[in-house]
Fold this protein.
Amino acid sequence: MGRSRNQQGFTLIEIMAVVLIIGLLTTLVGIAVAGVIDDARIGTTKTNIRGLEAALQIYQIDNSRYPTTDQGLQALIEKPTTAPEPRRWRKGGYLQKAQLPNDGWGEPFQYVSPGTHNPNSIDLWSLGKDSLPGGDDIGNWAQAETNE
């Protein structure tokens, strides 16, 4: 049985062309969304660094020193029991939720006191997207450089 001229349909080439165009558009949208997600994670990480820095500065004002590297950021939510013990640790800690935030990729922040980049203060950073030292680290020293 042959087709009459009134019966129209799509050829295989037309269907393949449409599928190819949809695939290309999906890829372009996926790339754009991935970039936005990375930007949001970086923004979240920088915001969390600023919040932790503020809490650490209040800790330093109360206790005349930052927590040691060994005491770490945990000193913001639990009173350190190792020397030097804080003189006036705030009941309830220094963070509203009594929980340490993670970076934008769900990893804990790194902390050193005194800092290498900030020898009179502290270094606070995220290992970034690759979760490896160096590379795409996001630190409080980089923020200070961009804010000047």
Q: What stands out?
A: Helices lie at 12-63, 140-147. The longest strand covers residues 123-126. The chain has one domain: 13-147. The chain is about 40% helix and 5% strand.
